[in-house]
What we know:
The structure holds two protein chains of two kinds.
Chain A lengths: L4 H13 L4 H13 L1 H19 L9 H10 L21 H21 L12 H40 L5 H4 L4 H13 L3 H6 L3 H4 L3
Chain B lengths: L3 H9 L3 H23 L2 H18 L10 H20 L25 H20 L2 H12 L4 H8 L3 H21 L6
Amino acid sequence: MAQNCAQIEERLSDYLEGTLEGEERRDFESHLGGCRPCALLVAQVASVLKGVHALKPLEVPHGLVSRILGATTAPKPKRKPLTGRFAWLEPFWKPRLAMGAAMVLATLLIVMQLATPAKIKKLSVLNPVDVYRHADRQAHLLYARSAKFVSDLRVVYEIQSRLRPESAPAPGQRDTHPQTPQQKSQDHDHSENGNTPMLALITPGCGEQGWE
Amino acid sequence: MEGDAQLVQLCLRGDGLAWEELLRRHTRRVFNLCYRFTGNRSEAEDLSQDVFLRVYRTLASYRAEYGGFATWLTSLTRNLLVDHYRRTRRDRVTDSLDDSLPKLEEKHSPERAPDKLALASELSAQVQTALGRLSPDLREAVILRDLQGLEYSEIRQVLGIPEGTVKSRINRGRIELARCLGEMGLRPE
């Protein structure tokens, strides 16, 4: 079967490595005989491969193996023990203990930050009674703010839930539900304008959805 | 002489001489792989050191039943090269290789004719320049097959792709390499 140039390119490595056999090899060579660009390409690749395969590997740079040995098997330098004034810290100068001590210190700092006034002008402020009073006051303030937040959320939710049934009445229910004159006029306004700016702020999109 | 797998076992037991022997056996190949891929001698040295540092730390993860030590080492080297390539992609100027040309034997040896040595050196430099112009996936395929001499099955393990894809990349890489060298003036014999 005759092969085209794209197929020749695809099978080029197989041909050069000798894995093309029989009819495939004959077709390949037959194409090369009639196609100069393909023949040139095959010759070029064959020549390059011959040159590349003949290249010797580069020598290892001088000292590289020693450097790797030094980095991997050299003994780690021992830390000098603490002396003088800080010698008493030596039993505690271990990573685990140091980490634990750092965490305790951080916790104390955070608790003091919350439990004490913002500006500590003198150390007498840190007496236990004042610390307790301050902490108690902070706790009550936090509780009060949370309660107000929840209460505000409730108010908003109630407003929204009362407005929603008015903003999107079901088609069959418009005539059957008795409406006060105020509600009727509101409906009239809404149906004309299509939206109410104030309600749109509270319930976005209500002006677009249910009025038509 | 022990095989690589036995040397690894000795290394894991703390035998420093076994580790040194392992280094001496494989450093040249790793360095060549790093150099041919990066085209930069000092980068190749640093990367080779990184490879063996990682090997030293993760030697316990090598399993002889999954393949030869050389394949595992090549795979690890290739992964580091990929990471390095991604990290330095932005800084790279693709067409120039400024500290790249290999310093082959510079002194004349009486056994070799000087012109053959010069030709080999020139071809090596030209091949390196042409390799630098290939895309990374074609470059690594050609290096592993034609410069490192790996079998298709080994390359498949190293790259983690099907053998058909390996053959396709090698084929395209060779054609591109020949075209680049042709543009640089290298003509077929």
